[in-house]
Amino acid sequence: MIRKIVAGLIISVLVLPVLFQVAQAKVNEHVIGHHDDPITSPITVPITSPITSPISFFNLTGEVTYHHLGHLLDKTKRFFDAENVLITVKNFWNSNQKFTTSTDSDGMYSFNLPSGLYWVSASDNMHTFFVPPTKVVSIKNNKVTNADFQGLIFP
After folding, report:
1. Which sequence spans correspond to the domains of the chain?
2. What residues have CB less than 8 Å from 115, skipping those under 6 apart?
3. Which end of the chain is more exposed for a tag (fewer CB within 10 A), N or C?
4. What angle do CA 104, 105, 111 make, to 5 degrees?
5. Which CATH architecture has domain 57-153?
6. What is the pLDDT of residues 65-86, one digit of tens each?
7. pTM of the model
């Protein structure tokens, strides 16, 4: 038992200070500029760009599908892409700021909008009821926001 205690003391008195000095020398080497390992090297330059744009635009994307309710005849699909559906986006705080687009043949749409809060809705020329009727989305920096809709087709 005494041997273990003495061995522990020898390690803590002799070996640990040497290991600490070696570690401190490695840290000093990186601080001075001898960078052997770029992953552990400290960053000494600003990481932000000095050039910024006056306004940034972010994506709003979504998919619109139709959903047949009720009994299906022949080979009618229950779900299918909703082409040429009008998507309207209005600024939540300023309804005069309005954007529109139509879905493509795959039922997809996208907008490039400045950050903010928006109402999004879908409509077509058949007066289809879309679920949800409207969505409120928040467009934020470097984030793609998604707003999907489904049009219900009653028999």
Report:
1. 1-52, 57-153
2. 56, 58, 139, 140, 141
3. N
4. 15
5. Sandwich (2.60)
6. 999 888 777 777 888 999 999 9
7. 0.61
